[in-house]
Amino acid sequence: MASTIFSTSSSLPTAVKGLDCNTYKPTLGNLRFIASPNRKSIAVPSSSSPAPKPLFPVVKATSDVPVKTGLSDAECEAAVAAGNVPEAPPVPPTPLAPAGTPVVPSLPLSRRPRRTRRSPALRAAFQETSISPANFVYPLFIHEGEEDTPIGAMPGCYRLGWRHGLLEEVAKARDVGVNSIVLFPKVPDALKTPTGDEAYNEYGLVPRTIRMLKDKFPGLAIYTDVALDPYSSDGHDGIVREDGVIMNDETVHQLCKQAVAQARAGADVVSPSDMMDGRVGAIRGALDDAGFQHVLIMSYTAKYASSFYGPFREALDSNPHFGDKKTYQMNPANYREALVEVHEDESEGADILLVKPGLPYLDIIRQIRDNSPLPIAAYQVSGEYSMIKAGGILKMIDEEKVMMESLLCLRRAGADIILTYFALQAARCLCGEKR
Ligand code: PBG
């Protein structure tokens, strides 16, 4: 039933597979042509006299298409005007209610909202929100290895070999209309330092992978993560001072170099997820100075200090080695504060505003949608993904339906694009494919 709830991109050749063609039958074949029941003298043959040849042939309800009479339009109209009306199926009887159903007068309602939900055709016509594979950005974990390593806390997700498994996964996603990815690297411990300098190594895992992907798939939109945590020996998104303080402006300096290295490799969208103050403006300036005016900035505008990131940190082995991220990521209790971040990111030149996590923060997505004209991204994070997967594996919920509903709800709240580990699975579902 996916096609009745979620519409697909019409440019996809497979997009209509979800439609149940078997249930679509032309109704013409069910019409029967007989004489009019209320003009008996003309139409209905009496039993005593020989039956007159009917003007319209009687067509049985079971036959597919009524035989044409060869009459002109004028003759058809004249026949009807004379009372010789073609027969249609009888008025259907009122369906029976179960015994014991109370007999009540109908409620005097001027509006019955259930009317527009009566049939699949009506429901599809009045559907307010749609979702298509083009709305998805597929987060992919990469590593230096050649094998794909399963991520225990995220069933179905792997750390992909940057030259092997990654290419196959990207090709599969493109096959079903997902043409945007975001890369997350698992960096060898030996390369991690307190100042995260591997983040801007032009020959590092991420820039190298971007160049290879752009070579193979020139049309692919590549998003990158800008933050120090995969490269930090402290597991934090910024440089940690002796007293545990995450240094803001010094970190921003590193992030600018990281963003420029990614842009030089061919990244289309750089995405600062670090939550340092002022990093969007600084990165914009650094990109422009280096000649990358065309590269977009997707700012993690409202990124909350959330426990829903747990599986991701396992995937990248990027748990903070001490403390938490509460001095830079937002307090989950705060709503108005998101608008402070929106105003800063807008004035600093962000192209896309991101909210993270997704489903528990629909109110934040809606607030930003109502307060900014900029495109909005929602990140359905690792914990959200893993909960749905676990529920499905345990057969507590219907995984596919819950997956599609959660994605549709993110769109309804106001997200233009969704970063989701379900991107491939959901796009296959929208295209009518089953895994
Ligand atoms: C780090 C980053 C995190 C995620 C994306 N970028 C983790 C964190 O902030 O600790 C989480 C994504 C997820 O949970 O799926 N800059």
Automatic annotation (TrEMBL):
Record keywords: Allosteric enzyme, Chlorophyll biosynthesis, Chloroplast, Heme biosynthesis, Lyase, Magnesium, Metal-binding, Plastid, Porphyrin biosynthesis, Transit peptide
Membrane-crossing residue ranges in chain numbering: none
E.C. designation(s): 4.2.1.24
Cofactor(s) recorded in Swiss-Prot or TrEMBL: Mg(2+)
GO molecular function, one term: porphobilinogen synthase activity
Keyword Transport: no
SUPFAM superfamilies: Aldolase (SSF51569)
GO cellular component: chloroplast; cytosol
Superkingdom classification of source: Eukaryota
Magnesium among keywords: yes
PROSITE patterns: D_ALA_DEHYDRATASE
Compositionally biased residues, Low complexity: 97-110
InterPro entries: ALAD (IPR001731), ALAD_AS (IPR030656), Aldolase_TIM (IPR013785)
Region (Disordered): 95-117
GO term, biological process aspect, one: heme biosynthetic process
Gene3D superfamilies: Aldolase class I
Compartments where located: Plastid, Chloroplast
Reactions it catalyzes: 2 5-aminolevulinate = porphobilinogen + 2 H2O + H(+)
SMART domains in UniProt: ALAD
Database matches in Pfam families: ALAD
Biological or metabolic pathway of the protein: Porphyrin-containing compound metabolism; protoporphyrin-IX biosynthesis; coproporphyrinogen-III from 5-aminolevulinate: step 1/4
Similarity annotation: Belongs to the ALAD family.
Subunit structure: Homooctamer.
Function summary: Catalyzes an early step in the biosynthesis of tetrapyrroles. Binds two molecules of 5-aminolevulinate per subunit, each at a distinct site, and catalyzes their condensation to form porphobilinogen.
Protein's recorded name: Delta-aminolevulinic acid dehydratase
Taxonomic lineage: Eukaryota, Viridiplantae, Streptophyta, Embryophyta, Tracheophyta
